[in-house]
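(Deposited chain)
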Amino acid sequence: MARLAAKIVTATIHFLQRGNLSELGRRSQSRAFAGNVRGHDMDLFQPIVDESRFHKNFASILVPFRKAERDLLKKWSEGFVDRDGKLVKEFQTSFNSSFWEIYLHAVFKEYGFSIDWSNSTPDFSVNANGCEIIVEAVTANSAHEKTNEWDKNFSDDEIKVLKSFKKLNREAIIRISSAILNKSKKFDKTYKNLNHVKGKPFVLAVAPFEQPHFNLQYNRPIKALLYDYYVDEDIYLENPEKFPNGPPAINLSYVEKDNGTEIPLGIFNDSNMSEISAIIFSCTATWGKLSAIAVNSATNTQVISIWATPPDGVPEIRQCSPLEHNESILDGLQIFHNPFADYPLEPEVFRAERVVQLYCDTKTGGGYMTEMPMLYFFVR
């Protein structure tokens, strides 16, 4: 997949130069959705701050030809209750965290779940067809004085980094770890004492926005962090003939920050994180997913993506028109379960076509099981 991802970067530059890059696909149909507090329609795109305070991503989506995508995001946000009255402002000024929450809300609607909005925190109290779970959203963001994801420029130095995935994956591991640990501390300090949280699976929903080209990481960093299972694509690219079955998986035990601090890996391999039942993860829940689902006659684009294909999951790069791309809102979604969780999340809750899950097979006493559909989404 590493070599194919490099091709995506090359093709992306080509389409940027032509001025018609977008990421398109098929419209997704939502099932019934209900909540016990009625939400008010939010006008996400009516500016409530001065233009000088617009986030770069927000400013970029206000162009006329993105109207179909904006309209779809409005549909995603229908029923979302802005309990503290800050979401629109944060969407316009910081963007990614608000976008991730709206996406999660749309995902829960797609599953037919209901949400209890009567409590101010955590983010979502979800009734998943009879199973009550708590979901807290968090984004991994760039470190101080490091390049923000929205500042990618496709320079020679930037592209050179992408020829080796070690640096990208290491940075992702460090930043995702920081995001998870901060929420773990928040749970221990506050959330665990709330009556509506006690006795229920506590699930973190993590989105990586920590660096340019974060979308190419797939699940390499998160699996290394959670299970100390790192797929070494670099060693494969250096000597592909030695690995006829693809990149090998190795145990790293830890990664080092720039200052030498060690970040331990395998945080789901013992009971130290037992308060976290599972991680919801996606590196494809970006504005590109809206482009991938909305029907937009105002653009003439090609989408470039990598899919695992049947029967053996061999990666395949695709470059095609929006209607041929065939992406849904759930594509790219992955659920990583904690086998040591105080309150386990049953895999049935998020089981769906083209959603990937990793969990421990406790019924047979076996090891970790990866539940993958015949066709699933890697990166776009």
